[in-house]
Amino acid sequence: MLTVDFSRFPLAPGDRVLDLGCGAGRHAFECYRRGAQVVALDQNAEEIREVAKWFAAMKEAGEAPEGATATAMEGDALALPFPDESFDVVIISEVMEHIPDDKGVLAEMVRVLKPGGRIAVTVPRYGPEKVCWTLSDAYHEVEGGHIRIYKADELLTKIREAGLQPYGTHHAHALHSPYWWLKCAFGVDNDKALPVRAYHKLLVWDIMKKPLATRVAEQALNPLIGKSFVAYATKPHLPRLSDSPSGTGADTK
User: Fold this and answer.
1) Does the pLDDT value for residue 249 go beyond 60?
2) Which of 40, 43, 55, 234 is most buried by a 10 A CB count?
3) Which domain of life is it from (predicted)?
4) What is the pLDDT of residue 253?
5) 226 class by beta-carbon count within 10 Å (0-12 exposed, 13-18 middle, 19+ buried)
6) Which residues in 7-34 are b (16+ Cβ under 10 Å) and which e?
7) Contact at 8 Å (CB) between 250 and 199?
C-alpha cells in the first residue's frame, strides 16, 4: 500500500533514493522495482533486518531491473551518515509526526538532497487524525507515538522554510480512516471487536484484489477523509557566480 503517488513523483532508473524512516520498506521496495539505487534507513534494527531480507528475496526473484541496487541500514534521521548532495530523491512517509525536532529532520533531508532533487513528505491528515486523538488517548500517548498533528499549511510552511519548493499535494487512504476511528473507539489494542475485524477484512480484500468499486470510492473520498496528506517539493538550484549581473560574481564597487 503506497502513500506516495509515483505518477506525480516520477523516478528515473539509476536515481539514488533515500527512504528515510523506511519502516517495513513499502516505498523502498517500489523504488527498487523501478530501477533506483535505494537506501532504506530506519532506527529500528529489527525492521531493517526484515527489509534487508526482502531486498535479497526481490533480487533473487528478479523483481528489480539490472542496475538497481538496494541497501538497508540503521541510522539517525537527525544525523544522516551521508555526504551533502548524495541523493536525487528523498522519501519520508509517516515519520515526521513522531519526531520532536521536525525542522532538524527537514534540514538533514535538504542537506543530503542534490540541487534539483525531489522530496516526498507524508503525514497523517489533520481532520481524520484529530478524530483519532479525540476518541483515544492510547492511540498517540505511547512511546514513539504521534506527538503532533500537522495542518497542511503548517507542513508546507516548514517545507518552504527548509529551502524547498512545494509543487503538489494530495490526500490518500480514505478507506483507512474509518478503520482507525473504529480502532480508537473500541480500543487500539482490541482486535477482537466485530466492527474492527469486519472492516479489517474489507481492507485486506481491497489491498489484495484492488476492485474498481473501492478504487473509485477511495478516489472520491480522499479529498474529504483521506488518512494521509502528501506533499511533493524540489530543492532549487543555487545561482552560480557566473550568473551575477557583472558576469564575475565579484563586487565591482
Assistant:
1) no
2) 40
3) Bacteria
4) 35
5) buried
6) eebebeeebbbbbbbbbebbbbbbbbbb
7) no
Q: Give the pLDDT confidence score for residue 242 in this predicted structure.
A: 52
How far, in Å, CA of 137 to CA of 150, rounded? 17
Task: Say yes or no to pLDDT of 62 above 70.
Answer: yes
- CB neighbour list of residue 54: distance below 8 Å, 6 or more residues apart: 25, 29
Identity of residue 131: V
What is the rounded distance in angstroms from the CA atom of residue 47 to the CA atom of residue 37? 20
- Neighbour-count burial for 106-132, b at 16+ CB within 10 Å, e otherwise: bebbbbbbbeebbbbbbbbbbbbbebb
- Give pTM, 2 decimals: 0.91
Which of 31, 34, 22, 7 minimizes the C-alpha distance to 93?
Answer: 22
DSSP string across 10-61: ---TT-EEEEET-TT-HHHHHHHHTT-EEEEEES-HHHHHHHHHHHHHHHHH
- Hey, what amino acid is at 96? M
Name residues whose C-beta falls within 8 Å of residue 239's C-beta, 6 or more positions apart in sequence.
Answer: none
Q: Are 78 and 51 spatial neighbours (Cβ–Cβ below 8 Å)?
A: no
Amino acid at site 11: L
